[in-house]
Amino acid sequence: MSEISDFVPGTDGTVHLAKLLRRDLARCAELERILFPGDDPWSESAFVSELKRGHFYLGAYDEQERLLGYAGLALVGHPPRAEAEVHTIAVDPEYQGRGIGRALLRSLLNKADEWQARTFLEVRTDNDAAVALYREHGFEVVGVRKRYYQPSGADAHTMMRPASSTVEEGGGT
């Protein structure tokens, strides 16, 4: 797969999205440990397993091809009854707030829309910024999973976005 997007608006310098490469999975696991220290961060082998299953994973890369963030989506079924699940979206803390996570999410949703798939995800109930981003992209809270994240015991919202390539997206580029 070639580049998904040449530039990510709002970033300093050039950031592009492309298929996540196996060589970057150790960096994914490193970012997991940084971003999710109170819970059970994914290991490199968990990412290997996701790629082996054929799930759709993207990386956000700077001009030196350094991985700044990543995102993954699982697709099951076939249109018009396909479903998608966002497995992960993460951005290096040094690069958060620059539109990288938003660009990764939009690319995942574009893939889900190609499949005409309803899209689900779980997000910590206390992650207000992520919940707002997901709402902006057509997601609604459809349930709560008590003590979903371990070992912290944090609750998660289950959110769903209807199957549609015409879901209104808020915000700018």
From TrEMBL:
Stretches assigned to the N-acetyltransferase domain: 15-164
InterPro entries reported for this sequence: AcTrfase_RimI/Ard1, Acyl_CoA_acyltransferase, GNAT_dom, MshD_Acetyltransferase
PANTHER family: L-AMINO ACID N-ACETYLTRANSFERASE (PTHR43617), N-ALPHA-ACETYLTRANSFERASE RIMI (PTHR43617:SF20)
Source organism per UniProt: Haloactinomyces albus
Entry EC no(s): 2.3.1.267
Single GO MF annotation: protein-N-terminal-alanine acetyltransferase activity
Keyword terms: Acyltransferase, Transferase
Protein's UniProt name: Ribosomal-protein-alanine N-acetyltransferase
Keyword Acyltransferase in record: yes
Pfam families in UniProt: Acetyltransf_1
Broad class of enzyme this protein falls into: transferase
